[in-house]
Amino acid sequence: MYSTFLLVVALTGGASRSDSFAQTAVRVGAIAFLAAIAMMRRPVEWRSLRWPIAYLAVLAAVMVVMLVPLPPSIWTDLPGRALIAKAAPLAGMPQPWRPLAISPPLALNALMALIPALAAMLGMLFLTPVERGRLLTPIVVLILVSAVLGLAQVSAGQGSGLRWYAITNRAAGVGFFANRNHQALFLALGLPALAIWATTSAVRFPSVQTRTWLAGGIAIFLCLTIPTTGSRAGLLLGAVGLVAAAALSAGRIRAALRKLSPRWRAISVGAGAAVVVLIFVVALTFRSATSVQRLFSLDVGSDTRTLALPTLKQLIVTYFPAGTGFGGFEPAFRAAEPFGLLRTTYLNEAHNDVVQLVIEGGLAGALLLVAFVSWWLYRSVVIWRMSTAVTHARLARAASVMVLMTMLASVADYPLRTPLIMVTMVVACVWMQLPRDKATA
Question: pTM of the prediction?
Fold first, then answer.
């Protein structure tokens, strides 16, 4: 059933815009999944997930608090509200009670956007630790399907019916997503995932030997398709994913090489190096590798995101420590946007979720960010120091890398605002908790 939920999220959860009908579909699907799995009356295992669940609960509570109406005497003293406060006197009305969030509808949408993540986390309660580990297979399958779909989109052209989001990057292979950067991250996440999927005992079918060959072929395919997304950040994330996959597989590779004679060992190492070089050459010179073309044509000084940084910093200062309320970035930015940044396009997000979290969440957002990074650092140190003989230790290591890659992507974009990446992040965080469990795979 959890695999079905992941499929629904993949088909409907690739966009982040609040006005997309897909948002309604993915949220309804998440609620239906949670209701269905709860009716199965399976035993609940929550102890190993208490900290991730507590984190999501606190995040949701902060969003709810920001929707509670405040008396005018308190609201007008909040930083950044002076411009909005002028509206009531101009209309000849007394100051009304308002919530901290400067845009209540967008703040409510931000709260509702947590539904897929909450469903993914709560659904894990009804799975055993072994079943949680086995979610690696459907994640790998979805990444492969998204890569194939992205390649088909590029081949079919910009008018392809394979793109089901109205606002999207039509010249790129976006797969399940509306945004090329989100597709590139999703594909890059497949590299460390494949390194574990190839040999983990949590997966029973197919055999280890078959999975090893499949994983190698899929990894090569992902390396060739990441450049077709047109995402410059995707190239960096792909490199991080490759290094992580090599580190995760190093022990198994060394063990296999030790079984060979010196001659065949040298031949194998040389052939492996040649394959890696060939993959890079083909990927970077491929006609549809638009991300490489965009990388070499990049003018940092004229990039909108670079030009917007001073305004973003000013927004932090203007609204801190209360923040704009979640979902309030766009109206706050439009009010502060200088004439020099006016374009036919606009920034619907800050394209830097670290900055946007502080703009919208204020001090609470900053503390939530610090808390999550601290948890990730602690768990990563524990995971990478433990023996690989510990159940799920290697899967947890791959998960820690996947979380790191998502955080890196969030510095230059907003991948976690799409339900599919959000749910994938939840699954990875649950995997990071697995080595605490006593169960064996």
Answer: 0.89
